[in-house]
Specification:
The structure holds two protein chains of two kinds. By secondary structure, chain A is of the alpha+beta class. Helices cover 53% and strands 13% of the residues of chain A. In chain A, helix 3 packs across helix 5 and helix 5 packs parallel to helix 8. The longest helix of chain A has 37 residues, at 186-222. The radius of gyration of chain A is 32 Å and the shape is flat. Chain B is mostly helical. Helix content of chain B is 77%, strand content 1%. Chain B has helices spanning 2-28, 34-44, 51-60, 67-79, 93-97, 100-128, 133-147, 150-164, 184-221, 224-231, 236-241, 244-254, 256-273, 279-288, 292-320, 322-331; strands spanning 85-86, 91-92. Chain B has a two-stranded antiparallel ribbon with strand order 1-2. In chain B, helix 6 (100-128) runs parallel beside helix 9 (184-221). Classes of the chains: A alpha+beta, B mainly alpha. At the A-B interface, helix 6, helix 7, helix 10, helix 12 and helix 13 of A face helix 1, helix 7, helix 8, helix 13 and helix 14 of B.
Chain lengths: 401, 332
């Protein structure tokens, strides 16, 4: 504000002390009338960037979303090679180690840094309380092996192999998260379970995205009676509590179905109930965009509805759609977990985090074998990561803001 | 206002009819009916079946008639309070259900009240103290509440209250009050037991509500009229409560529409874990044994609760916000 102070101006007219005039300066550079409007390369890059590039730039600035995205990427890369990551097979039973507690990995032994190792178990049956008691035996040092041959498996059910990232020492154990009532390694089962739990959300969202775009698109484009009918239908589905409806629908999946069919049935059910949310978004966006000038221009130029929807309308809100679809995945993951927990979802021998958690159905488990609740941690991480990533995407989806 | 109420009721009726058709379709989707499952079960265990009796029952309950007649029979029964017949319990559904529906309604409504009571002050605090340490902590807590499966939270809370408070709080009341007529002692026992399910069921909804209230209030607080009010020296509290808060309250009320289905969903699974005498566990067993009238009544009741809840919230919203009630009147 200081430059706005009113200093007395020097009077115009001939100056009292005439000073030598400055030497006349003429620039010899060619005259460029657009010099002011010219952009720096960085600006130019910004202005000609495609929408997706701008979304990407804006997303990168959202630190939490980037971190969440990295976690998700790691998880999804992990489920492609879970046979290799898991120390044991998914159904390997260690009958001598039923309900064994987790074995922490140590790297200090008698004050020295050594290769990672675990302590072996001393096992004793308390006949009075009928309880298995495992105590770490500080003398049994079992050094882990890496890139080693262990339990045989069929990679993706096709190629036989037995290479693992980490294996227990020969004759030793490696139960990083303990074992369940059949002596199966929980850590390995969680890694295998991720395959179902993480893909349920993706497939389910693909189903509801398709339904949402088609039905919402019809409602938004045609309007009138179709619109009113579809809107009412969406309201009916939305006003229904999801979980009981999911329960009812998954209860009617035939018992005779194979686990893989049941898996697809569950994802279909999850997707079928959740689409009205996306359908509404599509409809309202279509209604708004239909009135935009570029759409009128396309109509006047004689474009057909298919081209208008596909070339002009859809690309304008794809990023929004993807963002809201991402935010729907956590609900589906939680839904699958709840259904499998109740025994209505994915059925053994297929494993998901919900199936694993169904072992932790009563209070005794919390008291005696608390490690059986470990899968809930991965559920929380996955759900949070999707939430944060989706939030970041939603903010970035409108890069012109 | 009256025309608005009439308008809403006129929308509500077809919605309920559509829901009943959907439910009837769902409970009829599995191949066969309760009797075919029952016969197969009996024959599987080598018992002889009285086919004549089953045929009589099938005729009595109209299983031999076309589906649309069965639907009309069922829906007509619902209208005058006849919920049908539970085959696995061998008695009318309303006898089997007993207090369960009332208890479900009580738990759901209490949860919603709890959600409001908690979310309201925390949401305002979070918005007025944006980016403070406590705001970040509350946001983190809210995200955890959203992401934790409620049934596990229930288990852990059950365990800790058992170990540290020394009380067993499974169920909704002291066992001695079960199947007793309502009395003052029963109400007190209900209140003492209800807080855990209410917290567990309400956690996700509360977290969502806090986030929404915070976002709405933040949007409102940045508007120019608030800045003007502040600049003219209005007391900060008055500049908060007089207009911005009232604007941010709208979604608070209208959110019942999304909150209620969520609460009822949560209640269904939490009650299975905590063995509450509500509709959840019985719905599960009815679905498993294909006891269709029982399952259908529960689903219908849950949907009815939701639709009525949304109706009440719309009325409250219209009372609160003249724009809505005037607009609806004009549309008619």
């Amino acid at each position: 504000m200081s430059d706005l102070t009113f200093a007395p101006k020097p009077p115009y007219g001939p100056a009292e002390d005439a000073v030598e005039p400055l030497a006349h300066y003429v620039s010899t550079a060619p005259y460029d009338p657009y010099a002011v409007e010219r952009m720096t390369p960085a600006q130019e890059r910004f202005y000609v960037a495609s929408q997706w590039r701008m979304v990407w730039w804006k997303l990168q600035r959202h630190r939490v979303a980037v971190a969440a995205g990295v976690i998700l990427l790691a998880m999804y890369l992990g489920i492609t090679v879970c046979e290799f990551l898991a120390p044991y097979g998914v159904d390997t039973r260690n009958t001598d180690f039923i309900y064994a507690p987790p074995q922490p990995v140590h790297i200090f032994y008698q004050g020295r840094v050594v290769e990672p190792f675990v302590f072996g178990f001393d096992y004793r049956l308390d006949m009075k309380r009928l309880e298995r008691i495992y105590t770490p035996d500080l003398k049994k040092r079992q050094t882990l092996r890496f890139f080693c041959h262990g339990d045989g498996y069929k990679f993706w059910g096709l190629f036989p192999g037995d290479l693992h990232l980490a294996c227990p020492a020969k004759g030793g154990q490696l139960f990083l998260l303990g074992t369940d009532r059949l002596g199966r390694d929980l850590m390995s089962r969680m890694i295998y379970g991720a395959r179902v739990s993480l893909t349920v959300g993706l497939v389910g969202v693909a189903v509801s995205l398709t339904l949402g775009i088609v039905i919402g698109g019809i409602a938004g484009y045609y309007g009138g009676w179709t619109d009113i009918l579809i809107q009412r239908a969406m309201e009916v589905i939305q006003s229904f509590p999801h979980l009981p409806l999911w329960m009812a629908l998954s209860a009617i999946l035939p018992v005779s179905w194979s686990p893989i069919l049941v898996y697809f049935g569950i994802t279909l059910i999850l997707g079928m109930i959740d689409w009205p949310h996306l359908g509404r978004a599509v409809r309202s966006k279509l209604l708004a965009l239909r009135e935009e000038d570029f759409c009128t221009a396309a109509v006047l130029m004689g474009a057909r509805p298919v081209r208008i929807i596909g070339r002009h309308l859809l690309p304008s809100f794809t990023s929004h759609l993807i963002a809201s679809a991402t935010l729907m995945i956590p609900g589906m993951i939680l839904g699958e977990t709840a259904l499998s927990f109740l025994g209505l979802g994915v059925r053994p021998p297929m494993t998901s985090w919900g199936v694993l958690l169904s072992d932790a159905q009563n209070i005794n488990v919390v008291a005696l074998y608390p490690w059986l609740m470990a899968p809930v941690a991965t559920v929380i991480v996955a759900v949070l990561a999707f939430n944060f990533f989706g939030d970041g995407l939603r903010d970035a989806a409108d890069p012109y803001h | 206002m009256l025309s608005y109420i009439v308008h809403r009721i006129l929308i509500m009726v077809p919605t309920l009819i559509a829901i009943s058709i959907v439910i009837f379709t769902i409970i009829n989707l599995p191949p066969g009916n309760y009797f075919t499952t029952y016969i197969a079960e009996l024959q599987g265990s080598g018992e002889t079946t009285d086919l004549a009796k089953i045929q009589f029952l099938e005729k009595e309950y109209g299983f031999d008639r076309p589906l649309w007649q069965q639907y009309l029979y069922w829906a007509g029964g619902l209208l005058h309070g006849d919920l049908g017949y539970s085959f696995s319990y061998d008695m009318p559904v309303d006898k089997v259900v007993g207090d369960r529906m009332l208890l479900t309604a009580i738990v759901s409504i209490t949860t919603i009240i709890f959600t409001y009571l908690v979310a309201f002050p925390i949401g305002i605090y979070s918005a007025t103290h944006q980016y403070s340490l406590s705001d970040h902590l509350l946001t983190l807590l809210g995200f955890l509440g959203l992401a934790t499966p409620s049934f596990l939270l229930a288990l852990v809370l059950l365990y800790f209250s058992n170990v540290y408070l020394g009380i067993s709080i499974g169920g909704l009341m002291d066992p001695k009050y079960l199947d007793q007529p309502w009395s003052w002692g029963k109400v007190l026992s209900l209140m003492a037991h209800m807080w855990i399910p209410v917290i567990v069921i309400g956690s996700a909804g509360t977290a969502a509500m806090i986030r929404r209230l915070r976002a709405n209030l933040l949007d409102e607080l940045q508007k120019q009229y608030v800045v003007t009010a502040r600049a003219k020296g209005l007391h900060p509290l008055r500049a908060l409560f007089k207009y911005p808060l009232r604007m941010a309250l709208n979604p608070f009320i209208s959110d019942i529409g999304s909150l209620l289905p969520q609460v009822i969903s949560g209640a269904a699974i939490v009650s299975v874990v905590m063995s509450l005498p509500t509709t959840g566990p019985m719905l599960l067993s009815a679905l498993r044994s294909q006891d269709m009238y029982l399952a259908g009544s529960f689903l219908m009741f849950m949907a009815f609760l939701t639709v009525v809840g949304v109706f009440v919230s719309d009325l409250a919203l219209a009372l609160l916000d003249p724009r809505i009630r005037l607009q609806a009147g004009r549309r008619q």
